[in-house]
User: Fold these one by one.
Assistant:
Number 1:
Amino acid sequence: MDVGERLRRVYRWPAGPWLVARAIAFTAPYSASIRPRIIELSDGVARVALADRRSVRNHLASIHACALATLTETTVGLSVLFTLPPEVRGIATELEMSYRRKARGTITASCRWKLPQLSPSADLDIPVALDDADGQRVADGRVRFRFSAKPARRP
């Protein structure tokens, strides 16, 4: 059973989103530093929230740009892990952020994408919208992923 299948199974449990977030925290400790909360996770779709608290703030009393970038990468990474079939692998090759306004309060990152045709690999830019609790856009992100077939395992 591949990682994506395990995530899909665990996510369906009553405490599934919390358990998936804990698993991500264990495997990617830096992502855990923002304490992401999974709101929605399905094939090619993810919504993840970041609570506003002192540990993610900057000297301007708003959420730090690096915390928003980490939220962006975590959101896309979760959706990729959840979506990829066992024979395909993906790796982030670029991260781009555009900040529109000070981020305050709970921020929700959302992405929606479809797996491209592989021949033998494909790059895909996955856009991420980061909105505050009032629905105001605070930032836009883009993560480029390279997808390819997993190499055959050596015996």
Number 2:
Amino acid sequence: MEESFWSNKYKKGKTGWNIGYVSTPIKEYIDQLENKDLKILIPGSGNSYEAEYLYKNGFHNVFVADFSKYPLENFQKRFPAFPKNQLLHLDFFKIQQKFDLILEQTFFCALSPDLRNKYVDKMTELLNEKGKLVGVLFDFPFQEKAGPPFGGSKKEYEKLFADKFTIEIMETAYNSIKPRKGNELFIKMIKKTK
């Protein structure tokens, strides 16, 4: 999908994934983090409520990336204190930095399923040794014509990530927001060392 596809979604207000605040599973994970020096990436960041929450709580080494400049501009207007050089307007697959933690929130499900193996490879490339991929994946049957969002299952995801990540947690999120209750898997995975 082209950048214009996502920009048009924002311009037309067709952003059903936007809940207007940090999703509970991610917020509760952030709240237990102690190392404020972690270098964090939020790909497909959209309105970046997670980045704003992190930054306001002392995590100043957080980067947000989006294919569309529209949500990045909206975020900059809403939260001008966030450093402009940490707003990455580019294709996720072209990011060249390394991170300690990558937060997954409605990005994976927005990608065409034929990019899922490439996603796993890129996550591995972007994470430092023992880096973590944490967040939520949708747990509902895949519907090619209906997406995005594109779904999947725990069994599919375990198979997809098993070679390159140690899966510490992949279970139904107990703290999803009401409309997503029972449809989200909370994930915490650690990049395998070579």
